[in-house]
Design a protein that fits this description.
Length: 274
């Protein structure tokens, strides 16, 4: 196993399958993919991307734009890969697919959107809660804000699991400076949007209908814009699906990638010219 983190990387080899690149959301390191990656690596190579300023790279200056993050993600790949992006990671995945299409076999876009006209911001009370928690200790900030990334009531119903995830988050804290830098990059992407209609690969859009961070309307709009798309809306689920339902999400990703690869294998090959 080789770890690829921003400039270093994580490559978990499996034969005869194309790799999958996992890109986390704002303020999150590769830990957010821990359970999903463990399941996917049984059948294919897994590459874990951590944006500068997060996770093992938390001492490095954060990138100031989604385009720069996409360049860092591209640097991890020495062959085409399926790309899975959660939240901000979805912005990076879309940008990568548009900027370097030869590197992307398919997209899985989780709890994210394409920005631009029609975008729906998070509810005011959620935005205000983040602002009020900002500047507190890392543990207090995480404890006060992480519940909003799950479906309402999930934290109370899964107290032991929440404490486990909180410990993972606090063990690899993201500085407030990095959070602000990444947030500004997200706002620019969100405001300007991307040309989702030009995405040339199959895409799976997955969104919880109780997502309080990137409301579900954004996922619906993104799916409507993508040329070759499957859309899954999960009733009663929130934003951070890789933590809330890792087994189910890994299964959805695995089955989609298998369908994409089967479809590609079934295409007649173009005969070579004499």
């Amino acid at each position: 196993m080789r770890r690829r983190r921003a400039g270093h990387g994580d490559d978990r080899r499996a034969p005869l399958t194309e790799p999958v690149l996992l890109i986390a959301g704002l303020g999150q390191g590769a830990w957010v993919w821990r359970d999903v990656a463990a399941l996917l690596e049984r059948e294919r190579p897994v590459v874990l991307f951590e944006a500068s300023g997060t996770g093992a790279l938390r001492d490095q200056p954060a990138r100031e734009s989604v385009h720069k993050m996409a360049e860092d993600a591209a640097a991890l790949l020495d062959s085409p890969a399926h790309v899975v992006g959660l939240s901000m990671g979805g912005y990076v995945a879309l940008t990568l697919a548009l900027a370097q299409p030869s590197l992307v076999r398919s997209l899985v876009l989780v709890g994210t959107g394409g920005g631009g006209p029609g975008r729906v911001p998070r509810p005011f009370h959620v935005a205000r809660a983040f602002e009020e928690a900002f500047g507190s200790s890392q543990e207090e900030f995480a404890r006060r804000t992480m519940p909003f990334t799950f479906a309402p009531g999930w934290t109370e119903a899964n107290a032991e699991r929440f404490d486990e995830l909180l410990a993972l988050r606090v063990a690899q804290p993201t500085s407030y400076e990095a959070i602000l830098t990444h947030a500004e990059a997200c706002y620019v992407f969100y405001r300007e949007g991307c040309e989702a209609e030009r995405v040339a690969v199959p895409a799976l859009v997955v969104h919880g209908d109780e997502d309080l961070i990137v409301p579900v309307e954004n996922g619906r709009l993104l799916a409507a814009r993508l040329p070759d798309v499957e859309y899954v809306e999960l009733a009663g689920h929130g934003h951070n699906l890789s933590l809330e339902i890792p087994d189910a999400l890994a299964g959805m990703v695995s089955r989609f990638l298998s369908r994409v690869e089967a479809r590609a294998a079934a295409r007649p090959s173009t005969p070579s010219r004499p």
